[in-house]
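Encode chain A's predicted structure.
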Amino acid sequence: QVQLVESGGGLVQAGGSLRLSCAASGRTFSTYTRGWFRQAPGKEREFVATINWSGGSTRYEDSVKGRFTISRDNLKNTVYLQMNSLKPEDTAVYYCAASDVVGVSPYRHEYAYWGQGTQVTVSS
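Encoded structure for chain A:
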């Protein structure tokens, strides 16, 4: 059974940092594009960051550029999201995902595999 499991979420004060992890099991995703998305209450799920299979190409949503960093360890079948300078508006459930598209992708419909999400809450 293929699973993506996020961890590392929690409650942090504004200006703080968190590191999310997404471990995959059931198959290898070393050749897959990986992504992070988030969903705040009452809002649609939105793109946050994506990374290609080698880690050589990344893309970020404008509001997180310079604060968030996506990375991956293919030997561990894991993708990470380092989040610095967190703001209250970053509060959401964060989801990791995997896609077989070539390159990077900010498009939710191109991701076939999804984790269950981890809550990130940033207090002001």
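The longest strand covers residues 18-25.
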